[in-house]
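User: Please fill in residues for this 181-position structure.
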C-alpha cells in the first residue's frame, strides 16, 4: 500500500510544481503592482486650470488670471476668446486681440489693455498663477480713473460678453479642452 520509493521520486516533483505556482503568483502580483503604480502616478500628476476675472479696486483695473489648481504641470496649447450672443459661427480671438471684443465702459477714461504673451506651448506649474490680461482705466494724465462700484459692474459685463476656451495637456499628452473654466 505504501511504497517508499514512489514517494521519494514524487516529493521533488511536488516541490518543483509548488515553487512554480508560487513564482507565478509572485510574478502576477509584481506586474499588477506596477500597473497600479503607473495608474496612480498618472492620476496624481493631473493639472486643473481655472480662469477668473478679478476687479482690483485699489489699482483701478480688471485682470484675467489663470491658475493651475492641479497636482501636475498644465501644458497650455491655446487660449481662445469669442463674443457671446452673436448669430452664426463666432469669430475666435487670441489673447493679443481680445481688446476687440471687450464691452464698452462708462468710465470716461482711456482703457489700456495689456495682454501677456505666452510661449507656444506654455507650461503652468502646480499652484502657479499668472495674469493673462490687465485692463486699466487711465485719465489724460495717466492716473487711475474709474468708479469703484462701476469696476465690479464692468467685470461682470466682461464675464457675460466674452466666452473662453482653454486647451491644455498633462505630461503624458492627454489633452483637455475646457470651455469657460
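Assistant: Residues filled in for all 181 positions:
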Amino acid at each position: 500500500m505504501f511504497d517508499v520509493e514512489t514517494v521519494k521520486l514524487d516529493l521533488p516533483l511536488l516541490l518543483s510544481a509548488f515553487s512554480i505556482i508560487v513564482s507565478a503568483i509572485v510574478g502576477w502580483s509584481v506586474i499588477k503592482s506596477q500597473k497600479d503604480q503607473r495608474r496612480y502616478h498618472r492620476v496624481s500628476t493631473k493639472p486643473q486650470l481655472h480662469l477668473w476675472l478679478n476687479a482690483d479696486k485699489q489699482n483701478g483695473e480688471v485682470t484675467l488670471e489663470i491658475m493651475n489648481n492641479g497636482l501636475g504641470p498644465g501644458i497650455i496649447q491655446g487660449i481662445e476668446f469669442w463674443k457671446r450672443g452673436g448669430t452664426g459661427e463666432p469669430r475666435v480671438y487670441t489673447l493679443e486681440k481680445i481688446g476687440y471684443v471687450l464691452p464698452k465702459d462708462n468710465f470716461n477714461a482711456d482703457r489700456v489693455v495689456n495682454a501677456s504673451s505666452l510661449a507656444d506651448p506654455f507650461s503652468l506649474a502646480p499652484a502657479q498663477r499668472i495674469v493673462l490680461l490687465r485692463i486699466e482705466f487711465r485719465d489724460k494724465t495717466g492716473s487711475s480713473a474709474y468708479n469703484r462700484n462701476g469696476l465690479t459692474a464692468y467685470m461682470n459685463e466682461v464675464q457675460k460678453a466674452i466666452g473662453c476656451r482653454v486647451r491644455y495637456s498633462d505630461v503624458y499628452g492627454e489633452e483637455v479642452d475646457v470651455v469657460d473654466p
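For context: The chain has a mean pLDDT of 82.
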